[in-house]
Amino acid sequence: MEHHAAHFPDRFAGTAAMNRCGVITAWGGSAQELLGYDADAVIGLPAVELLTADADRPKAAAAVRSCKTGESVRGELTARHRDGHGVDLLVRAWPVVTESGSDWLAIFVGAAEIRRWDTDRAVVDGLFEQAPIGLAVFDPQLRFLRINDALQEIHGIPRETALGRRLSELFPGPEADRMEAGLSRVLETGEPATQEHRAPMPELQGWRREWSTTSFRLVNPGDTVLGVASAIVEVTERNRARDRLVVLNDASTEIGTTLDVTRTAVELAAVAVPRLADFIAVDLLQGIALGEEYVPGPVGGGAVLHRAAIRSVHENAPEASYVPGALITFHPATPQAHAMATGEAVLLPTLEGSEDWVAHDRHRAEKMATAGVHSVMVVPLRARDVTLGVAHFYRWQRPDPFDADDLTVAGEVVARAAVCVDNARRYTRERDAALTLQRRLLQVTTPQLSAATTAHRYRPAGSRTGVAGDWFDIIPLSGARVGLIVGDVPGRGIHAVAEAGRLRTAARALAQQDLSPDELLIQLDGIVSQAADDEDTPGAPTAGIGGSCLYAVYDPVSHRCTLACAAHTPPLIVEPSGRVRLLDLPAGPPLGLGGVPFQNTDVELSEGSILVLYTDGLLRGTSGRGDIDAGLDRLRRALARPHSDLSHTCDTVLDTMLPAGGADDAVLLLARTHALGPDRVATWDLPLDPAIVGQARNLTTGQLTAWDLDELAFTAELVVSELVTNAIRYARAPIQLRLIRSTSLICEVSDASSTSPHMRQAADTDESGRGLFMIAQMAERWGARYTLAGKTIWAECAAV
Fold first, then answer.
1. % of the chain beyond a pLDDT of 70
2. Greater pLDDT, 82 or 771
3. To pair with 400 at 20 to 30 A between CA atoms, which of 316, 386, 690, 743?
4. What are the pLDDT digits (tens) for 199-234?
5. Averaging pLDDT over each range in 72-86, 253-267, 657-671, which range is the top one?
């Protein structure tokens, strides 16, 4: 039998004792597990009967002879398993001297198991000797049992010093404590774990070197815990690449969430710190936030910048040289000025050799020295070949300097921010232009009216959407009446604002003609339809098609309000009792459809009632997509307790409906109605008789005396005389004279004729034709309005 150098581990071995005749006298260990025979089945049998091949019998005989000479032998034999298959065994036998003579003892193991065990050990030894990654084995007390050359090179401590000691003994500090805590969890739970950590000590192999350690528990077949094994791999570059991707991804999602220049600068700062730098300042050219246009190309020296944003790893950024909002000018020697002048980023891994910069910027230099800044990057903000400002990055808490990879990441992040800043700047410019146009075109004063006290609010949409085409007006009308109009033009931007201004101008002009609300909407509908027909520019917005409008005329003498609607949200009425009700009006078609009539609705309003007109942006809430019915319910509740001051009521309603602003423009127009009682109105029916003109003058003089307005008697007598004379001469009965004491004295003469009066220039020889000319000279304003029964010529004299 061949000699073999294998070592037999006890946990795999079977044992057998044989007498000098080769008969088995004892059977134990793992013998039954290896060959399937129990002791009763084999004791008393010749050992050779367990061999499967005749060729092995001479080996057995040679082994017997060796044992008789007192030699131990090793070799490989094939035995027969109880179920019939062969089992390769490695056998070692020793002679044993007993009372009965020379016997021998054999120990045998499965050859395949021994070969596998030898292979595993060779693999482990080879791994520890050749693997480029760090390997360590710890005992149950977490002391080093074995480390390889790679790990010795990583932590820089000789193997002889490390073996038998714990991590916390070699590298006292929180990082080593954290690593040991992870090893303890693996030892206790038996669950493998991977944790990442920096070098245990900052000075060890560089602060930025990072490692990934995978640990698993070592247990023998008897479930005895032997310790923990760990594999240590450096992941510095992988993590840096991952961090760069994270910064770039965050920049794509977190920068430019609004169309606000300053907010975009703040978002850039938030992405950069602490992931890329310990401190950042973002400075924009002074007019950028205002939407000003700049010429393409770099920016020369002396440019004034506005500190838009800062961010630091320290609370309140004590190292900042200037606070947000400050105006800054960089000296030409500074890297900031150089970056803006050349359009190229500046990388300063170390501040050595920066004496010129420091000498011309001592304030910033002192702040940097106090903070311990050691590395700087400066990147210009450029978009569409326009320099918008500069972003500068600083490090002091992290000892590793900025490098070329950091500059690349910073450049990409700043480029993203620059495009967003430029978009915000362009939007700001257009929005400001639209708002300016809107204020000019839709400027509404609050006139002194006898008919009502008014208050209004216009709230533009938030910066995400843009200015819309909401419009409104308060129009003094003849007879102490007032016209209230609210409208909404589709679309956003300057086109919508211009269309809203055009409609408002047209509505005011039409209202001055004393058209009824339904007639006014018909005229506006025709204007919008005509504008749409005339529009021939491809891609241009359609002029107001689908717009809405609501027009109301309130008469303080009759207490009646006449309304007509073109697809607009219906008005609310707050009664003097505080009850809020929604007026049920025919909705009417949108403006611009053409050919569809509108319908008047008359309601009587008690004195002190509040008529509430608004656009749908007030109801849709902050998102701009809110439910109209829910918005109406909120509006009712907000109006349930109106203040005596309508301006205060407007503010309360807006705070309730749009506390954080809205996604759509919103108009709110309130009018508290007044009444002109009989003591302020005088009416007389006059016959169609020229002789009545003198009586009309006397009636006027007497009424003015009763009102204590004698100083207006001369003017009023002249106006009334001319109006009555024209009615008698050119019109039909019945004729009515009415005087109204409003904010001015109003003289009205009504007749049954619809003939329009015309003022003309009378010749020197003409005996008539000067009446309306004289009225125009004496009265503040005059005009005519038409009804189904005829017309009324009116004139307003001086204020009373």
1. 84
2. 82
3. 316
4. 654 444 444 577 788 888 888 767 788 888 888 887
5. 253-267
Sheet holding 781-787, edge to edge: 681-686, 735-741, 744-751, 790-799, 781-787
Asked if 251 and 417 touch (Cβ cutoff 8 Å), the reply is yes
How far is residue 408's CA from residue 247's CA, in Å, rounded to a whole number? 12
Block residue for tokens 């050595």: 352
Pairing of strands 305-312, 279-285: antiparallel
| Identity of the amino acid at 141 | Q
Strands 101-110 and 14-18: antiparallel
pLDDT of res. 541 = 47
Reported residue count of the chain is: 800
Residues 34 and 109: beta-carbon distance below 8 Å: yes
Contact 256, 464 (CB under 8 A): no
Query: Which amino acid is present at 260?
Result: D
Contact between 793 and 727 under an 8 Å Cβ cutoff? The reply is: yes
Interhelix angle 404-441/236-254, rounded to 10 degrees, is 10
Rounded to 10 degrees, what is the CA torsion of 119, 124, 125, 126? 90
Which residues, including other chains, have CB under 8 Å from residue 755's CB and lie 6 or more apart? 730, 731, 791
Spell out the residues 6+ positions from residue 307 whose beta carbon is closer than 8 angstroms to its own. Answer: 281, 282, 283, 322, 323, 324, 325, 326, 327, 328
Alpha-carbon distance of 246 to 311, in angstroms, equals 19
What lies within 8 Å, CB to CB, of 49 at 6+ separation is: none
- Residue identified by tokens 């900031």 is 336
| Inter-residue contact 610 to 646 (CB < 8 Å) | yes
Q: For residue 125, what pLDDT is reported?
A: 65
Q: Is the pLDDT reported for residue 56 higher than 50?
A: yes
Tokens of 362: 């001592």
How high is the pLDDT of residue 52?
59
Measured at the CA of 725, the angle between CA 721 and CA 726, to 5 degrees, comes to: 120
Name the residue with tokens 């420091």: 358
| Encoded tokens for 399 | 């000892």
Q: b/e for 637-655, b at 16 or more Cβ within 10 A?
A: ebbeebeeebeebbeebbe
- Does this model's pTM top 0.70? no
